[in-house]
Design a protein that fits this description.
Structural class: mainly beta
Largest sheet: 13 strands, parallel
Number of strands: 22
Bound molecules: zinc ion
Length: 217
């Protein structure tokens, strides 16, 4: 058996000082001059979907954390395809339910929601909810703008709370709007409507009570 001997580690230089040129190079690499490198990253304002407060995030970010409640904020756009098993979507981006999809028990919080396929569940949109396909929504709907496309039959089991509604198709259910409800030619709303302003164009119809917010007190 050969005898094993550790070799002593010999430090080539015993001085702890770096040569001046090397020291300067390292200092330059690690120091940060705020005056020179002040880069303005473009930001955008987002509203946290958990706590509802506003914060600024880099415009190009795909996700961020709310500075108030630390919730993870997803900012990507999401497409729900036919047969999708994803039921819960939380994003500051837009969501599209693709045509031919038949999805239920969804829980979607997003900016704009496009229903090109049949979807049921609870929807909360900070932007617009565009319904382009016959569907029955069993959950609640909150949106800034509800748009029901021409020829579309929308059934609302629990009604919708919106800022404004634009109805080109047929809506069955309760609609509550802080702003106005606009029923266009060929459009029909079957159900009570709470809004300060309801406009029914010629060729449109509202079958139900119109409750002005003042009436409630
Ligand atoms: Zn938050």
């Amino acid at each position: 058996m050969p005898e094993y001997k550790t070799e002593p580690f010999i430090v080539p230089s015993i001085s702890g000082l770096l040569p001046v040129s090397e020291r300067n190079r390292r200092v330059a690499l690690t120091s940060y001059d705020a005056r020179e490198r002040k880069v303005q990253v473009p930001t955008r304002e987002v509203v946290c979907y958990e706590c509802g407060r506003r914060s600024h995030v880099p415009a190009a970010a795909l996700s961020a954390n709310c500075i108030h409640c630390h919730a993870h904020l997803n900012m990507t756009d999401v497409e729900l395809k036919p047969g999708s098993r994803r039921l819960t979507v939380r994003t500051l981006g837009n969501v599209t339910v693709l045509a031919d999809a038949v999805l239920s028990h969804l829980s979607i919080v997003c900016r704009n929601l496009n229903l090109e396929g049949r979807a049921s569940g609870s929807f909360r949109c900070s932007g617009s909810l565009i319904v382009a396909c016959n569907t029955r929504v069993e959950g609640s709907i909150e949106a800034a703008d509800l748009v029901v496309n021409k020829g579309v039959n929308l059934i609302l089991s629990q009604g919708a709370c919106v800022q404004n509604a634009t109805i080109h198709g047929r809506v069955t259910g309760r609609v509550s709007a802080k702003g106005s409800v606009h029923i266009l030619r060929g459009g029909e709303l079957c159900g009570d409507c709470t809004a300060s302003n309801v406009q029914v164009e010629q060729g449109g119809a509202h079958l139900g009570n119109w409750i002005r917010p003042n009436d409630i007190g």
